[in-house]
Prior knowledge:
182 residues; 8 strands; globular; 6 helices; alpha+beta; 8-stranded mixed β-sheet
Amino acid sequence: MALDPDPQSRATPGRKPAVTMAVLFADIAGSTRLYDTLGDIQAKGLVDECIGLMRGIVAQYGGRVIKTIGDEVMCVLPDADNGCLAAIDMQIRIMALPAVSNVKRAIRVGFHAGPVIEENNDVFGDTVNLAARMAGVAKAMQIITTGITVGMLSPLLRKSSRSIASLSVRGKEDEVDVCEII
Length: 182
């Protein structure tokens, strides 16, 4: 009887086998300032508008929003190219929104492509953790990803990236090549 080399990759009830996809986190930068400047009701309306816009963009690129956490969305897309295109589209469309009381909305985006475990409409694994770390590195109006993900991009999209640095990332033994999508 042969042993299963990777028992976690098997599907079980409520869990699908690991699949490769892009995980993207987009966070509204400066949302605290929005709430301070505009008050809770108006700021929440502006945050909701951004999240609604991002939900539509994710769907347009064949993805789905896994969850929203305050002013942040976590979503999955079918591959690195769709993750990159969705991130670019989000940045362009959020930047195009009009300022309200001289407050301009901006987002910071981090994404990484790799294997994820899907369970109960959520995703888990190292890819999710690395995508969240990339979002933490990003600044307002910036898209950050990993060198591994850039290597998965089509040649044209790969040209729109630049290497920033190799950083040590909590939970990773080796440094991670960090890139910006321009």
